Amino acid sequence: MHLCCCFYCLAFTFLSFYSLSFQELDSEYTVFQAAWSLKTRALTEMVYVDEIDMDQEGIAEMILDENAVAQVARPGTSLKLPGTGQGGGPSPAVRPVTQSGRPITGFVRPSTQGGRPSTMEQAIRTPRTALTARPITSASGGYIRPGTASMLTNPDGPFINLSRLNLTKYAQKPKLAKALFEYIFHHENDIKNALDLAALATEHAQFKDWWWKVQIGKCYYRLGLYREAEKQFKSALKQQDMVDTFLYLAKVYLRLDQPVTALNLFKQGLERFPGEVTLICGIARIYEEMNNISSAAEYYKDVLKQDNTHVEAIACIGSNHFYSDQPEIALRFYRRLLQMGVYNCQLFNNLGLCCFYAQQYDMTLSSFERALFLAENEEETADVWYNLGHVAVGIGDLNLAYQCFKLTLVNNNDYAEAYNNLAVLEMQKGHTEQARALLQTASSLAPHMYEPHFNTAILSEKVGDLQRSYTAAQKSEEAFPGHVDTQQLLKQLKEHFAML
């Protein structure tokens, strides 16, 4: 790692004495070609983002998606439609879910914090990442900064003038072409020129170079042409079996809402690369998003058999045990993360919850104190105060719980769960109007949660507003069809309406 950094520094130092343009390179000047290639790769490494893990889906991709998706998908065949997942995990009464019906995962990954909103208003209100309450405007938003920052940091302008490139000439030089493609794709974010260069280089290689086909597929994927990307990745796999190609092709199928096809692809990859951790982890992620928690846990355990330091697998298994009413076992996994050197707010927050539910009260408050100390932003602080409020409710100190939920809203004003719990405390105090207002706020911020709707139905039924109670109970049943209390309330209301 240190040697690479030294070479990059030498390249910048060497080239600072020359005002090289791309047109000056010629086959006779191999030294200058090597130096140019080295600087190009150094600039690329400064802003390089792994395309396999980088998968942010913006508003434009969600709302303006023209890919055909079945309106009534079969159970277990769609990630976009709620209620199509298979069983095997805790219900929403035990484990919180996103607005698309997916359970909250134990590890923050792209597209796990929010779902797929049905309206533009809902998309703007829904958190798309773990650190912001507003979504990015489009998928290219995650790539704008690297391309623009490169020009600002160079007083002499861009290193390569893309408008003056003769792509046909340089596509005939494989080594230079590959370095140039990486620079254009990652550093300049110019997908059109990158695609043109990759197409010319593939033609020059007589369509026998699998690497260029993968790059063309990456360009098509970035442009939203998923079927064209699928063809390129499949063609590359016929020529050369590579783990990355399997992962890229699986991303295409997931974006096309074909999780079963992606699962079969991962399993084909495991036949060619037995024990590959990334492929096993990909299967576990898909099962988790399909609500098949038991199968996901089995594959995460297979991941740990191959790599016992895999943070994502440990965190997800620990989260699954916690929501399965096994906090003592979950505590072991989170302590393992602590032993591995993971030291952040989220880990101590989870340790505090596990200690509380495992009745290890001596470690509960100290873990939450450490979590508050390590919180890096207001959203993390709000999560810790919210969990402290639950601890206060558990020990019967409702005044402390009220203050904790208030502090949660101070740090994050869009925390729907805190509004709901405050409304319950207000109902116990007899403050009906304050409770109703808080429940309305909670239901508008998180329409996928059943708790605010059910509490609104109970509150309205107590004050005699049966029509509003029935409407809220229907929304609660829609959000969580298996909620027994909601079904009983609806039955009582229907019997009362029948008697009128």
Characteristics:
mainly alpha, TPR-like_helical_dom_sf, 25 helices, Serine Threonine Protein Phosphatase 5, Tetratricopeptide repeat, single chain, 500 residues, RNA polymerase II-specific DNA-binding transcription factor binding
Task: Explain what the structure shows.
The chain has 500 residues and is mainly alpha-helical. Among the domains are: 326-413, Alpha Horseshoe (Serine Threonine Protein Phosphatase 5, Tetratricopeptide repeat), CATH 1.25.40; 422-500, Alpha Horseshoe (Serine Threonine Protein Phosphatase 5, Tetratricopeptide repeat), CATH 1.25.40. The protein is 65% helix and 0% strand. The protein has 25 helices and no strands. The protein has helices at residues 2-15, 30-47, 59-63, 120-125, 141-152, 167-170, 174-188, 191-204, 210-223, 226-239, 243-255, 259-272, 277-289, 293-306, 311-323, 327-339, 345-357, 361-374, 378-395, 398-411, 416-429, 432-445, 451-463, 466-479, 484-499. α17 (345-357) packs parallel to α19 (378-395). Keywords: Signal, TPR repeat. One of its GO terms (cellular component) is fibrillar center. Residues 1-21 form the signal peptide. Residues 81-122 are annotated as: Disordered.
